[in-house]
Amino acid sequence: MSSDTELARFDLVERLVHWSTAIMMLTLIVTGAILYLPSLALRVGHRGLVENIHVITGLSLLGPLVLGVAGPWRKRLIKDLRRFDRWGASDFDWFRGPARRSGLPRDKFNGGQKIEAAFLGAVMVAALVTGVIMRFAPSSWITWATGATLVHDALFFAIVAAVIAHVAFALSRPDQLVSMFNGRIPRSWAKLHAGAWLSEVEVSKGEVSEADLAGPPGGSSP
Amino acid sequence: MAEESGQSSGRPDPGTKPVHMGRRTVLGILGLAGIGIAVGAKVDNALGSVSSAVSNAIGVPLPGDDQFRFYTVTGSYPVIPADTYELTVEGMVREPLRLRLADLLSMKRTTLVHRFQCVTGWYVPNVHWQGVLLSDVLEHAGVAPEATALRFFSADGEYTESLTLAQAQRPDILVADKMLGANVTADHGGPVRLYVAPMYGYKSIKWLNRIEVTNQVVNGYWEDNGYPANAWIGGSSSVSVVP
């Protein structure tokens, strides 16, 4: 293979799910901050409106992901979700830091990206559940609502920290950032950072092509 | 995926079984959240003073602190000088009233020490409230026998609330001009707000400037946003906070 080609990293479905979820997360963080932080709450006001935007966006948050896995366009997304779940030695090795890693060929995503994905997925669900309790629980559930508020408030800090880390990592890794826009990543990047994935792509002949970018490739079985 | 395990060259670590760390992470976090929901109210209680102290120090609200969150339903909230404040009581009354702050201060004073409980779950324990019982204000105005309900209006022009006349007779509902040991500040709804101890916080209307005695309950701002008009804390009206 020549060294200048690009590989298909994310298909259109994955990018749509990513960016629509990202826009909703940003909306939730901004409206959540207005609802939560007294200085912002007093400056912005309009609590009924801000609350409704926050609640409706929150209820829709998992919509793109659910739609993404709901149809025949799901293949690549499902495959990547499984990657987040399945950890091999190279994923644990990644946490040793750049200087001490053993150089095992890595999967499409490294251990840090996998933990971030699992973490963000989990906190999204946890925030949804606690948010629904806060907003819709009958008034006799107040003890649970207090617990849900405690968790939801704690999640606010966790989510803000995770999103800041996510954006900071993305901005400092232009190849990967661009791939979330156009779906493609240089083979040279894969060779250096995702050797195991590169071998997998080569075995399944999944090199970039117009068909690849328009939709998920066919099954990777030989 | 099954087909992936068939490609030895494509696996990150040939020879070892993958560990389901993603699933474990998700289940772990959801488990923690579940525990948080179940025992959060107790944790909140225990955390209160520590969390409040840190929150005060850093100026950011923290989970479980005993601090008020500030709600305003309009773009900016009214700042009303104490010396120009006036509370109108009108509608189905014998004698409409225009009460200034000095009038409220000269009436029979009542003090309550009780939590402010928001319907979403946060609360502030042992808040010191002082003012005139709503029932005393109504007695001064002389409510007509056919009246059954009250409408409350806020100086912000948006916020409204309601109570039935029967609810308003309770000895734990204050037209409050003092809270937290000082005059009610503008951000807390001063100079005068309502404090409805047995109900969720949204019933305790801020910047109260008009009470209308009427014969039908009209939904207020938060009721129009889907919250119940009979907002008893814990769903029951039987809990009285008066010693």
Walk me through what this model shows:
- The complex is a heterodimer of chains A (222) and B (243).
- Helix content of chain A is 70%, strand content 4%.
- Chain A is mostly helical.
- Chain A has a single domain, classed as Fumarate Reductase Cytochrome B subunit, CATH 1.20.950.
- Chain A is elongated.
- Chain A starts with 5 loop residues before the first strand and ends in an 8-residue tail after the last helix.
- Chain B is of the alpha+beta class and 243 residues long.
- Chain B folds into two domains: 1-67, no CATH class; 82-235, Sulfite Oxidase, Chain A, domain 2.
- Helices cover 26% and strands 26% of the residues of chain B.
- Chain B has helices at 2-5, 21-58, 101-106, 134-141, 165-168, 221-224; strands at residues 19-20, 86-91, 97-100, 110-117, 123-133, 149-154, 160-164, 173-179, 182-183, 193-196, 208-214.
- In chain B, the strands form two sheets. In chain B, strands 3-2-11-6-7 form a five-stranded mixed beta sheet. In chain B, strands 4, 5, 8, 9 and 10 form a five-stranded antiparallel beta sheet that branches.
- The interface between A and B is large, with 70 and 65 residues.
- β2 (86-87) of chain A pairs antiparallel with β1 of chain B.
Write the layout of secondary structure elements.
The complex is a heterodimer of chains A (222) and B (243).
Chain A: E1 6-8, H1 12-36, H2 38-44, H3 47-60, H4 63-68, H5 75-85, E2 86-87, H6 89-94, H7 111-136, H8 142-171, H9 174-182, E3 184-186, H10 187-193, H11 195-203, H12 210-214
Antiparallel strand pairs in A: 1-3
Helix pairs in contact in A: 1-2, 1-3, 1-8, 7-8
Chain B: H1 2-5, E1 19-20, H2 21-58, E2 86-91, E3 97-100, H3 101-106, E4 110-117, E5 123-133, H4 134-141, E6 149-154, E7 160-164, H5 165-168, E8 173-179, E9 182-183, E10 193-196, E11 208-214, H6 221-224
Parallel strand pairs in B: 2-11
Antiparallel strand pairs in B: 2-3, 4-5, 5-8, 6-7, 6-11, 8-9, 8-10
